[in-house]
Amino acid sequence: MAIFDIHLPKRIARALRLPENNPRNQQLRVLRKLLRKARFTEFGQKYRFDEILLNKHIGKKFQELVPVYNYNTIYNEWWYKTLEGKPDVCWPGKIKYYALSSGTSEASSKYIPITNDLLQGNKTAMIKHLLSLRNYVDIPVKSLGKGWLTLGGSTDLEKGPGYYAGDLSGITAKKSPFWFQPFYKPGRKIAKEKDWNKKLEEIVSKAPEWDIGFIVGVPAWIQMCLEMIIERYKLNNIHELWPNLAFFVHGGVSFEPYKKGFKKLLGKPINYIETYLASEGFIAYQDRQYATGMHLVTNEHIFFEFVPFDQHNFDADGNLLNGHKALMVHEVEEGKDYALLLSTCAGAWRYLLGDTIRFTNKERCEIVITGRTKHFLSLVGEHLSVDNMNKAIELVAEDLNICIPEYTVAGEPYGLFFAHHWYVACDDVVNAEVLRTKIDEKLKMLNDDYRVERTSALKEVFLDVLPEEQFMQFMKLKGKVGGQHKFPRVLKGKMLEDWQKFLVGELV
Which residue range or ranges hold the GH3 middle domain (predicted)? Predict the structure, then answer.
C-alpha cells in the first residue's frame, strides 16, 4: 500500500490519533475548541463565548445564548463585513477565500467563508477517510498508488478586493499538499480551465496517458466524462483504458439513480464510496465497505446539532419555526429525519445547512442524506421526501431494466385540488404511462401519507420522459455546470418557472 507509506506532516499525524470513541465527548471537545478560538471575535463577544466556556453544561448554554442562522441572516448580519476586508468578525483573522455556492435552488451565488483552519480540518478528515480503506475486504492494493481523477471546479479563482472566490473543490485542489500532486489528475493546468467543455475535452485527450485508480466527483458529470472517453477511443468499457480503476468516490446526490448507467461503462465491478463534503465543511464519509450510511466527522472541526424535521419545527415551505428544538449527537434517535445545524472553524455558528439526514446506526454515528428542508413535496400533507423519490426511482428502474440518471418533480394545481408532475430523464425505450403508474405505486408503498392523500386531495400524477441531454442543457443555461452542481430533485419558485420556459423553448 504505497500511498499509506507517505510521511504526513506532524500536526496531521497527531490529529489522526483519536481520543475515546464517545461522540458526545468528542463533540463537546470540538465545541470548546471552537469557542476558545473565536471568543475574542465580534461574534464571540456579542454572544458571550467566555460565559459559555465557564458553564458546566456548555452545549445547552451555547444553544441558549446563540441564535440559529441561515445563510441570509448570517450574511446580512455578519459575513458581509468579511467581504469588505474586516478581520475578526466570526472567526479570528481575515477571510481570504470564499466558496461560491448556490446549492440546487438559489439563483444568486452564496459566499461561504473558507479559512485555513477549515481546510486543515477537511484535509485531516480526508486522510482518515483514505486510511479507512484498510477496512475493505480484498482491496485492490495496486490501485491505491495510481492516479486520482478529480472532476471539480476551476482552480483559477475569481479575484475580489482582498480575497479569492470559487468552487470549494477548486480551492481544495489549489491548496492540496505537495505529496498529493503526483497522484492528482487532471493536473494543475487543466484544473485551472474555467470552460467546462474545454476542460472535459482536455481530459479526454489526456486520458490514454494516465493510469487511473480513483475517480472523484458528482455522478452526472463523471458519467458524462467516461462516456466521452469511451466514445472517443472506441472502447467497450473504461477498464480497457484504465485497468486499475477500482474506486469511485462520490457525493452530493444519491448514487442509486446512476448505478445502472455506470455498470454499462465498466468492464468489472468497482468500489463505490460515498462522501458528504459541503462548502461549509467535510461532514461525513463511508468508512466501511458495505455500510448503509456515512460516518459523521464528530472529532475534528464541526459541532453538529440536529433539529427534528417535522411539523413542530418546520412550516410547509421548510422554514424553521420559532420554538424549535435542537438536539446534540447523543440525543438523536435512529430512523428519524433531522435538519443539520453546523458550527465550524470558518465562522458559521448554529448555521442551518438546508440538508436533512437520518441516523442509520447511532452507535457508530452513521447517517444518510434524506433530502433538503426546501426540497420536499407536501402540498396537502403527503410529506414526500427526496429519499422516498430516490427509492421509488431505484425500484422502478430495476423493475423495468432501464436507466434513470436524472429526474425532478414539481407540485401544481389540478382543478380545485393538486397534482405532482414528474420529469424523468431516460434514454432507454420506455412507456411513459407504465413508468408513471409504477412510480406512483412505489411511492404509495414507501410513504403512508402519500398513499392516503392519493385518495383525497392529491388527485393526479403526470409524467414526461425527456432525454438526459435536456437536463444537462438546462444546467448549462443556468451556469451550473460541473464541479459540485447537481439537478434539483424538487422544483419550486423561479427555478420551476425557468424550467417550464426552457421546455417550451422560451429560455435559450
Answer: 297-361
